[in-house]
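Worked example 2:
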Amino acid sequence: MSDGGRDELSLLSLGRRVRGLREGLRLTQEEFARRCGISVSFASLLERGERSPSYDTLLTIGRALEVPVADLFREGASTLEVNEPSHARLVDFARRNHLSRQQVERWIAVGHAMFGFEPERAGGDRAVRCAVEGCERPVLARGLCAPHYHRDRRARLQQDEG
């Protein structure tokens, strides 16, 4: 295959990836174009693999789609290797429901609190710990870990009923 053929395939792959990410965020081409500062016709040509964006436009597209520029060049939506079936279900759930990056981050934070896992933090900061003496679990809400929060909530509901 000539270099021109490879370039065409790369543009087609980039276009498909951009379209998939845009649709995953539920953006219209018009909204996507507005976020990128490009015309709707250029957005359309880009998604069809008929135009090559400049480096600056790639940076803008990455920001608009909430992904690093490198993600624009990953082949297809199935680049994430998921061997465990339950993990695949989590990925499928996020994709099917078009969760944004921010929603996935909140989902992960809830998982950390729910299962008592230490969240990954930049700079080595420790997670906020439950206010109950001797409990070392991360906080879910109101200064309490998930089990203590739900126990406290049930107690308040019983007081309100009684």
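The chain has a mean pLDDT of 79. The chain has two domains: 3-73, 85-161.
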